[in-house]
Amino acid sequence: MDLALIAITRQADFDEYLVIEVAFLSTQSTIWSKAKMELKDYFENTKGTGILATADAEGKVDVAIYAHPHFFDADTIGLIMRGRLSHRNLQSNPYAAYMFIEKVQGYQGKRLYLRKTSEETDPEVIEEIRRKPKRDYSDSSDEDTYLVYFRVERVRPLVGDKT
Questions:
Q1: Does residue 102 form part of some domain?
Q2: Do 81 and 116 share a domain, yes or no?
């Protein structure tokens, strides 16, 4: 996409400032993609607790403990969810936040700001990516299971970050 922006800019009359701005956007995009790939390594190698926050269309908030996210590419993660409140909230409000607290002294971790993009209901696909054998935490073993895909829109440290 950055190359297309440069090609379009070169076809039109432009000044030096515009070329520098397009090159800067291209650099920022590369840095952002690299940071997200490093995020995959972070979650694969860091122990801790994940918490997903969702809200319904009226703004009523829910929080729940979740496993580490599954990474599909630099922009896409997935969480395996049961057909409960967090999943129901995402049907009317696609935004969520995932907070990860590292299992270390003090407060370290990440906050991921997410937007739901799609979901998968095929049990074979879900079981293929599941890291551990399926556990039954409820009385209802027939409860629906979903692989919910999210676009990572923003990443912040657990504490700090003035943005």
A1: yes
A2: yes
Beta pairing partners, 118: 149
Helices (H), the chain: 2-11, 16-45, 85-92, 123-129
- Looking at the structure of the chain, the number of domains it has is 2
* Helix-helix angle 2-11:16-45, to 10 degrees: 180
Which domain CATH number covers 117?
2.30.110.10
β-pair partners for 55: 61
CA atoms of 102 and 19, how far apart (whole Å): 42
What is the Cα–Cα distance from 5 to 82, expressed in whole angstroms?
42
- Amino acid (one-letter) located at 101: I
In terms of Cβ atoms closer than 10 Å to its own Cβ (0-12, 13-18, 19+), residue 115 is middle
Distance CA 100, CA 111 (A): 6
- pLDDT (tens digit, 9 = 90+) per residue, 25-72? 444 444 444 455 589 999 999 999 999 999 999 999 999 999 999 999
Torsion angle of the four alpha carbons 139, 141, 144, 150, in this order, in degrees rounded to the nearest 10: 80
CA distance linking residue 152 with residue 115, whole number of Å = 7
